[in-house]
């Protein structure tokens, strides 16, 4: 069977592009901490208010004895709750997300905090916020008429400033 020279060249280019994508995926996973969400943890989205972890008074920031932080948040049409959060920079943070209605997405630009929030499951993302400042928290999964207005803010401050705020109860605790 004869294969035209041009055909071979295009096949080689297509293979190289596919190879390049594999390299990009591997390097983002191995060196940039970007992973497809793999946390499979079921939860009853209709009973979040009764759950041990996502009842209203449990939401927000929880600091652990080793200094790491867990942030529990609920996404629902059309907002992320609690509304205002202050987080420390350069600290191991585990975000745990649940939805109370439909599929939402959440993304903090310029960080690896990006995941879908599927009702019935807990979405978990570990991150380290390197820069202080105000970050938008955006819904990036179409969820209804108010989707474009579904966003809030996270304020990232230095660790020392955060500790001081934390003592005054100003970081939105559960
Ligand atoms: Cu929530 Cu779009």
From TrEMBL:
Superkingdom: Bacteria
GO cellular component: cell envelope; membrane
Domain Cytochrome oxidase subunit II copper A binding: 64-168
Residue ranges the record marks as coiled coil: none
One matching Pfam family: COX2
Keywords: Copper, Membrane, Metal-binding, Transmembrane, Transmembrane helix
GO function terms (MF aspect): copper ion binding; cytochrome-c oxidase activity
Compartments it resides in: Cell envelope
Protein name per its UniProtKB record: Cytochrome C oxidase subunit II
Origin species: Methylomonas methanica
